[in-house]
């Protein structure tokens, strides 16, 4: 017989949504266990942008100053590059926030920080190397999780199970919840090269010859996202690594002398871009949040921040019913009501950006700055909109209690 634990909330997935939800609930007296299948958080090419909306949540928890002691890089403007010319399409310097920048920080540092802070509360427990294998269901309701740990098969019983285990959520699948998909027209190849003086200091999306390259400047390296047509990975592999290095160098000539740092396809990581969302985020005893409820495109880097907002709203609305022992499915539905419109609108904006800016197009010799981008800074009513959408999002929430 499997060993058993009983808690108020069992969270599947130790990503930003799962860890933060555990922290927020534990600080309000709810007993939480978070199950993370890996031994650590050290995985490359996860979302590394912390947006002002998330920093405001850290403000609410009086954690911002400690968080920003971790090495990071700040970006206040997001730019598009057309050859040697650059234009700002999102300016965060006029945001109505104390934080008018993106903090670029490896996600493993953020997760270690949050899990350490959460562990200060007696009601929080993070179990690493705990891979969820199935649901426990009784009388039509979810009542716990089965998982495989380092010491064998185990169970955790809970009033509420939260699926925060990503876009390929095993918990969501086991619960029979199927997301409605869309078809983004692109995938992304992520790679990394070193940063050297006198490199540019700002991140940029470089456009030229029908191709797009995202250059994200961290303190000691460049994270590069080479955009390819949907399903085009096999064609890129067939052309060879030299061809990929040449394509990247053509868009970012200052990196040409160090592209030999990429000497194996193992250093090139494919992100299959997906965007979907559940019609129903919950069942009796179960709630999906983050990518398990809505996979986001990488456009704008907002996925982590949507997940954070889900966790904040869930904690605000569910801590009281959980403490009183009166949690109902209506409470879970209230989380979806608060979050589904911001999610849908964000995905709509991302879809437009994918089609108009990010998706690769037929190759051309040159690519000039579109007139609309040139005019954007001169139109006060719309110039700040991209910065607000990326920095603060739609319907941002603050921590209650």
Summarize the structure.
The protein contains 12 helices and 20 strands. It is an alpha+beta fold. Helix 1 packs parallel to helix 4 and helix 1 packs parallel to helix 8.
- Mean pLDDT over all positions: 91
Q: How much of the polypeptide forms β-strand, as a percent range?
A: 25-35%
Structural class: alpha+beta
Span from first to last CA? 40 Å
Helicity, in percent? 25-40%
Radius of gyration from the alpha-carbon trace, in angstroms: 22 Å
Tally of helical segments: 12
Total beta-strand segments: 20
Oligomer: single chain
For the sheet with most strands, the description reads: 8 strands, mixed
Low-confidence parts:
362-366
Gross morphology: globular
Q: What are the salient characteristics of this protein?
A:
eight-stranded mixed sheet, 401 residues, seven-stranded mixed sheet, 12 helices, 32% helix, alpha+beta, globular
